[in-house]
Amino acid sequence: MNIKVKKLSEDVEVPFRATSGSAGADIYAYVKTDVLLKPGERVLIPTGLMLEIPENYGGFVFPRSSLASKHGISLSNCVGVIDSDYRGELKVAVINHSADNFVIKNGDRIAQLVILPVCGAKFITEENLSETGRGQGGFGSTGKN
Description:
Elements: E1 4-7, E2 25-28, E3 35-37, E4 42-52, E5 57-62, H1 65-71, E6 73-75, E7 80-82, E8 89-96, E9 102-104, E10 109-117
Antiparallel strand pairs: 1-4, 2-10, 3-9, 4-8, 5-7, 5-10, 6-8
């Protein structure tokens, strides 16, 4: 699948899948100056990119596991969602969960983008729902582990 990308500057990095088996494409920071991210701080990082995601698909922005496991840097919204009709600049909301400052530099890989099909579900109200073996069992109801 081809995704059309508009670069807001010639030096912007386009999302890139590191291997043929990579589910996500790396997304790069596009910042004019280094961004100091203090412990507990959240910041919106621009990418310098606009995307054209096909109808019935969405762009899902996930944290990079290496940033999270090594530095405590994750996404403040857990998973970002890019709708197929959005044409603004892609920005990534990051948070520093560590006790240390972290610096984001221009061109740093800050997240990963996965394109997935989405179902245009319609929600209808009903008085009764079908029965299941689980029923209303919620958190932890299917076992201890």
